[in-house]
Amino acid sequence: MSGAADPVIRRGAAPLVLSLPHVGTAIPEAIEARLVSPWLARKDADWWIGELYAFAADLDATIVRAHWSRTVIDLNRDPTGVSLYPGQATTGLCPVETFDGEALYRPGEEPDAKEIEARIDTFYRPYHKALADEISRLRNLHERIVVYDCHSIRSVISRLFAGKLPVFNLGTNSGASADPALMARVADIIAASGRSHVVDGRFKGGYITRHYGRPENGVHALQMELACRGYIRESLGPVSEADWPVAFDADFAAPTRGTLRAVLAACLDFAKG
Known about the structure:
One of its GO terms (molecular function) is hydrolase activity. The chain has helices at about 30, 40, 50, 115-140, 180-190, 205-210, 250-270; strands spanning about 10, 15-20, 60-65, 145-155, 170, 195-200, 220-225.
């Protein structure tokens, strides 16, 4: 297995790092040959999040972007395999099912423990080394920095959460991953959007937020999980290969992009003190 194409890095000098761990759609041929469906394997990608946050380059932010699909390995899970949400339905480090519970692999083709360890070495560690290196580089330049983890998910997935997910889901590991002043400023911005929002609701922040958020060391981490309807023309409920993913429409996404631009500006203002 080769991880040579991962990760993709845009280096900036501002005290802001964007992590995009679930935008990748590439799957090595040897793995794809064992899957039930290439579409199912890419179904739960964070579709168009890179396009939505493209403006971050204008802020001179550093952007670390995954190349490989989360089906290969989930870069926002604990590498030990420990669940981040005990007692709640979720997918694992090397998922064997979709968010909706559909099998990803043909019977008997699921990765075993040895293969999972190999995938950690090949795909997981390079992303996290790159992210850690960029955090260290910027922390050496600035007294404090913000790590902003970018995510999206379909608005209705009954297996994972009840009802319709709020549009803006800010995760702070229950207040442990960032300064309260930063969290409050971002929470005020998403509240002012007029759209549904929650702080530390169903999505409190994954491994990236929890692992890298060290306010006492000048590294403040936030996760933003967006319900897809906030930036694409999502039909609520089950999806099929014929209708998912929908195309990205910059005009439709503009209001949410405006809110996110204000959020990242607040992160920069906070970091610069």
